[in-house]
Amino acid sequence: MNNNEKTPLLEVKNLTKHFDLSTIGNKRILAAVDGIDFVVYKGETFGLVGESGCGKTTTGRLIVKLYKPTAGKIIFDNIDYANKSERELKPFRKRVQMIFQDPYASLNSRMTVTEIIAEGIKTHHILENKADIEERVHELLEKVGLKREHAGRYPHEFSGGQRQRIGIARALALNPELIVADEPISALDVSIQAQVINMLEDLQKEFNLTYLFIAHDLSMVRHISDRIGVMYLGKMMEIGVSDDVYERPLHPYTKSLLSAIPIADPRVRMSDTRVILQGDVKSPINVKPGCRFASRCRYAKENCHTETPEFKEVMPNRFAACHYIEEINDLNTEK
Fold first, then answer.
1. Whole-angstrom Cα distance, residue 254 to residue 126?
2. Which are the contacts of 216, defined by CB distance < 8 A and separation ≥ 6?
3. For 264-301, b where at least 16 C-beta lie within 10 A, e where not — what string?
């Protein structure tokens, strides 16, 4: 289906989050997220990838309103929630939930599994009767591959994979439409990761969920995502359909990122061209105009260091921010 035929569920426009690290006589502004734009359509999985420190987790926390944005819009189902009060956010919080990276730190160690999962149900008055709440908790536990008898236990009594399943059950408790999954498998054993991913895909089909899937495991992101956004130092570098981005990356940063994916076949690995980045990573503090990737880009020219490139559609359903994107990829011959 063409993107024009899909219904946007979440629209992020010029989303910005700056942290003030200033001390007396020394102004220091950290641009964690610096004016990004993207759309997430109903029923899809939008993968958000990039190096550690690129701002992808901050983006997720902004969307669920754990952080207040410095600027920009967070439009969910045609309503901008960026600057809503906590009272006005209550219906929004029922419809947008988050799965956190650390399955232990995100669970209250003093609460039982029932109390953890039922907290949102009670807060939003989804159910009032104690027996109904317990039955709902048991139902959710079974949905995520746990058992009813786990309901009375505490987080420390579970493995990492089981704790993440509890976190997923908590996210499902309010019947949300959008789930922001912040690296939900990175803290898990490799043998458990595929199980959790398959479960998330099954739950998406069963409950008609939409995912914003944040990760740095590029091979896993390709497996689960319909479209992918690539971030670098608070800026969006490229967005496109998953297979298109992986088979033909447009932005120099995306090319280097994908070339680093391990390939099991040594014959393929030897014939593959690895892009080794040179230069230093720019500081995200007190940033100046220019492309954030310019200091490491082999195609960079003088204006790349002084003029910020526009993030624009360079091919149908392909967006990128680079002054020389057409020249690098010979796009002019294809238009």
1. 44
2. 49, 50, 51, 52, 183, 186
3. eeeeeeeeeeeeebeeeebebeebeebbbbbbbbeebe
Give the model's pLDDT for residue 104.
86
Distances, alpha carbon 117 to alpha carbons 66, 155, 171, 172, in Å: 19, 12, 8, 9
Instruction: Using only the alpha carbons of the chain, give its radius of gyration.
Output: 21
**Average pLDDT of span 286-294:** 94
Q: Tell me, what's the pLDDT at 329?
A: 87
pLDDT at residue 274, as a whole number = 66
Q: What is the mean pLDDT of residues 230-253?
A: 95
pLDDT band at 333, cuts 50/70/90?
A: very low
CA-wise closest residue to 114 among 144, 143, 155: 155
Tell me the β-bridge partners of 211.
45, 179
Q: Return d(Cα 115, Cα 122) in angstroms, integer.
A: 10
DSSP 280: P
- CA distance linking residue 86 with residue 90, whole number of Å: 7
* Res 330: pLDDT: 77
From CA 195, how far away is CA 46, in angstroms rounded?
Answer: 20
Single out the residue of 311, 210, 242, 176 nearest to residue 8, CA to CA.
Answer: 210
Cα–Cα dist 142/170, whole Å:
12
pLDDT of residue 190: 83
Q: How far is CA 271 from the centre of its chain?
A: 32
The pLDDT tens digits for 123-132 are 999 998 999 9
CB 224 within 8 A of CB 203: no
